[in-house]
């Protein structure tokens, strides 16, 4: 854990206190007790200056926020320059270049949260549009050159990642959310459609009981299919909830009722499938009950079937939080994230701090 981590540092407890209208000063002070890190190669939405900036955006610390926004703009431009250089060279990407947790999608999510520099945000969107153009040989533009956890014998030729946290569902969600808010660049609709079509191809099962591999190998890509025997853990980070949320936003952005409805049906079945729920081993936002509940709560505003499942999901989170609370206190895998999701579902009110913007789940201001 580091003090400037949005994932597992004091930021989660600060956001929880602010959401409850409590004093967050001690948690905020802990975040900035040391100089804020801002090297482009070392920071992201969830680490360093952008993480501190995201947390302080929920406060009224305007002077500090302006300084941090300047850091984030500089970091984003540096990351964009490196990404375009890599694209021009025709090399494969690392997921940390583009993903939500470590990459430019996360920085774009911050710029969208702040709402004050749409031209830089459009530069991020232009990069993501470019990312969706295929490589020579038919690999998608977001194909990663190594495995999900780095090089390994099973990942010769890299991988394709469908997930929200480290895969292409994160860029899809950002492209869709910005379009829904009227922030559009050339080729954006086509990019959304390309990603959606790719995710449609790689889903397993028969709608609405479908699921996705956590990662697709080069051999599977060349064969054109990836078989997984059944749904995996229904998590926000890699599983069906996060992916279907991105597809749901895509359907709305493209004014495609069929895609939107199918995503709702897939998620509705997922959140009521006891076999899938039984695979949740903890209460975390990242890969546990809180992430499933909050994803479903956001989507429930568009689906009565999902809305009827919320009491069961809230009970599941509350019961497990009481019996086996997380060891950590942070946002992604600790107590803070679980309590924030519980609070939103109990009050049925959009978070005042907009803390779920870092998960690309919030859709206030969209049409």
From TrEMBL:
**Molecular function terms from GO:** metal ion binding
Q: Name one GO biological process term.
A: peptide modification
Signal listed as a keyword? no
Cross-referenced Gene3D superfamilies = 1.50.10.20
Q: Which UniProt keywords apply?
A: Metal-binding, Zinc
Q: Is Flavoprotein found in the keyword set?
A: no
Q: Which InterPro entries match?
A: LanC (IPR033889), LANC-like (IPR007822)
Q: Which residues bind Zn(2+)?
A: 237, 286-287
Q: What is this protein called?
A: Lanthionine synthetase-like protein
């Amino acid at each position: 854990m580091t003090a400037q981590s949005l994932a597992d540092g004091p930021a989660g407890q600060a956001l929880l206190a602010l959401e409850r209208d409590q004093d967050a000063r001690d948690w905020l002070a802990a975040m900035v007790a040391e100089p804020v890190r801002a090297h482009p190669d070392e920071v992201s939405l969830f680490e360093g200056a952008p993480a501190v900036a995201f947390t302080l955006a929920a406060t009224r610390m305007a002077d500090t926020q302006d300084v941090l926004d300047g850091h984030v703009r500089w970091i984003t431009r540096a990351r964009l320059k490196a990404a375009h250089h890599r694209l021009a060279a025709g090399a494969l990407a690392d997921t940390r270049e583009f993903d939500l947790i470590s990459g430019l999608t996360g920085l774009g999510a911050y710029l969208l949260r702040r709402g004050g520099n749409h031209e830089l945000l459009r530069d991020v969107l232009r990069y993501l549009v470019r990312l969706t153009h295929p490589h020579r040989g038919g690999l998608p533009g977001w194909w990663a050159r190594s495995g999900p956890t780095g090089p390994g014998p099973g990942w010769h030729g890299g991988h394709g990642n469908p997930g929200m946290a480290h895969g292409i569902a994160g860029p899809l969600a950002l492209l869709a959310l910005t379009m829904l808010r009227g922030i559009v660049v050339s080729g954006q609709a086509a990019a959304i459609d390309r990603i959606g079509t790719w995710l449609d191809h790689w889903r397993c099962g028969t709608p609405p009981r479908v699921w996705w591999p956590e990662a697709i190998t080069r051999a599977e890509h060349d064969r054109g299919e990836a078989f997984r025997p059944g749904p995996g853990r229904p998590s926000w980070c890699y599983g069906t909830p996060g992916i279907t949320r991105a597809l749901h936003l895509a359907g709305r952005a493209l004014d495609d009722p069929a895609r939107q409805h199918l995503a709702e049906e897939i998620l509705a079945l997922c959140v009521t499938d006891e076999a899938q729920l039984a695979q949740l081993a903890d209460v975390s936002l990242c890969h546990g009950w809180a992430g499933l509940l909050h994803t479903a709560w956001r989507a429930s505003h568009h689906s009565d079937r999902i809305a009827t499942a919320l009491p069961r999901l809230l009970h599941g989170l509350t019961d497990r939080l009481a019996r086996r609370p997380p060891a950590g206190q942070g946002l992604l895998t600790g107590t803070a994230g679980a309590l924030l999701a519980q609070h939103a579902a109990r009050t049925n009110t959009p978070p005042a701090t907009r803390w779920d913007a870092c998960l690309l789940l919030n859709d206030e201001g969209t049409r």
